[in-house]
Structure formats: structure tokens, C-alpha cells
Amino acid sequence: MPPALPPTPTPPRSPWQLLYGAAHRARRRHWAQRAERLPRPVVSVGNLHWGGTGKTPLTAAVARHLRDRPGGGLRVAILSRGYKSRGDGVRVVSTGRPGEGPLLPPSVAGDEPVLLAGELPGVAVLVCPDRAAAGRHALAHLDPPPDLFVLDDGFSHLRLARDVDLLALPMADPFGAGRLAPSGHLREPLASSAFADAVLLTGAGPTPPTAELAREVGRALVPFGFHGEAFAAPTRVEDARWVTGGPVERGTRVVLVSGVARPEGVRRAAESAGLTVVSELRFGDHHAYPAGSLVKIAERAEASGAAAVATTSKDRVKLLGRLDLPLAEIPVRAEPEPSFFDWLDRRLGLAGRGAESELRSGEDGDTP
Q: What CATH number does the domain containing 266 carry?
């Protein structure tokens, strides 16, 4: 039988939750008339939770669709904050030239931008805390300039106006217990879903999210002000592969290493990929893997008799070339239901259009 969703939460009543929620509403009102608008459409992918929602695979899926859409591919640029990146100003992780790959390491650009740049040839990736500045830089310096921007982790980044706002909600905890931190898992109240054009229910496992479950989540958010669309965006775990190329034989004994928000999902992914996990090391989200961590991994591998180290795609970009043991990656890919992409094309005015120039909103800043 299909999995049951957590109970729909009721609006919070505690003074702290009400005060925190009021602060978020005031912040949104402040930026509603002040957000900068770029002269190209902006699609934002974000979440209400503190990490672990499948946002990065969803960002990749959206950018991949817009790049490859049958009616005419678009020149896409991803704008990212570059969490835990170093440096000032705009940093270009990829110009979008085919076969280019990441131009900066994770220590400078952040792990997720480097991952996206490597997985999406032909898509530009730029990093800057000021995403509007990154967009202006892309339009001025990339040749050819982008037709459209995808704003990674953008739901709470209100300084940049967007044309489509997408929310990723994990099937394991779609409502975040209905409460803001520290007593809940939300960084914005569920009432902020009123500003989303669509929610996407993400997750993997033997019973991935379905369209019916996604619609149920959408209906549960209506009392909080949500009136958008709801879609399923299951995450598919692909076969493990060596970073040097080629598939990993099922049953290979590995030390599983991860630095993500929801490491339990990594364990399930490794097992579904047929790997034999003989030991596991869990680090904090966006862990940088300093020298001490590398020593710990090597010692654990030797003690457990593992033949290799297995990790996530996000961790792979930080461990590549830094371990003596063979390194295997467990790729995951978001696969939203087809009706989502049909809806997205209609929202962007792309339905039935083949010329990418028609998408451009013009230098006057009009939206499509």
C-alpha cells in the first residue's frame, strides 16, 4: 500500500513561532517592491526546510529540461549562493561552453555549484551572494548571453525577482513538523508556501512520491495560503560508478562516506545500488574534508577491510584525487512527472514555441 504522509500540521500558536512567522512576512513585504528584476526570466528552486530536500537534483532537472527541450533548447545560467565558498564578487564556475567542466574547485565555488557545472555541460554556473549581480555579470560577459536563469536555493533570496517559484518538499517530512527552528525543521513558516507557484514532492526508495501523494500535499497546504500546483519529483538512484569510469560491481565492500543533511538516505541509496556497506562515516552537511577527515576515512577503510570508498555526488567533488583507495559515486537524479515540465513551459510562455529569442523578456524588464 502507498506510504502515508505525516499528519497535516495546524498553524502554530506559540508566541515564538508567531513572532518568527511575523518577521518572515515583514521581510517578504519589504522586498516585494524592492527586488531587482533581470531582463530575462528567472526560475527559482528552493525549500522551506533546513536542507535535505533534494533541491540540487531538482535544480539540475529543471536546467536540463530547459537546455534540451524538444521545442528549442535555451541557454541556461544557474545562479548560486555558493554555500561555504570563498572569495568576493561574482565567480564563474562554468561559462556553459560544451565540454568545459568546472573552472573552480569546491573550496572556492562551493560543492553544489561545482557538482552542477560538472553534470550540466552547456549550462553556465555563477556564484555570488548577490544573485542579481551574478545575473548582470552573465548578461554582460557570457557569449552568447543566457536566455533564462535558474536560481538555485532561491526561495528565501528575495533580492532578486523571479517569474516562477518552485518549492521542493521531501516526502519523508513534507511539512517539517509544521514548526520553525529550533522546535521544528522549517526555516520559513508553511504560510510562505503562499508565494510558491508549485510544490514538488521529492524522495527515493521502494515507494517514491507519486502524483496522488503530491496533490495531497498541495491540498494540505491550502489552509496556509498555498494555491499553486503540486507535482511528484521522485529521485532515482543510479548504479554506482567509479569516478575513473565504469560501473561498480554489485556486492563491493565499501566504507560509505557522506557530508549531507540526511545521511540515512545515502545509506538507503548505497544499499539499493547493491553495495555492501561494511562501515560508515557521517560528517556534517557541506563538510570540507580537511586532512584529518581523510586520515579517518583511510583508517576506517583499513580496519573494516573495505575495497573502496563510496560517497555522494556532492561529496565526490571534494574527495576526488585526495584518497589512495578507489572512489565510487552513487549518483541520484530527480525525475519530475512529465506534467510538471508541460506546466513549466506554459508558465514561461514556451508551449508551442521553438525560437529561443521569443522567451526573452526584453530590455525593458517585462515578464513573459
A: 3.40.50
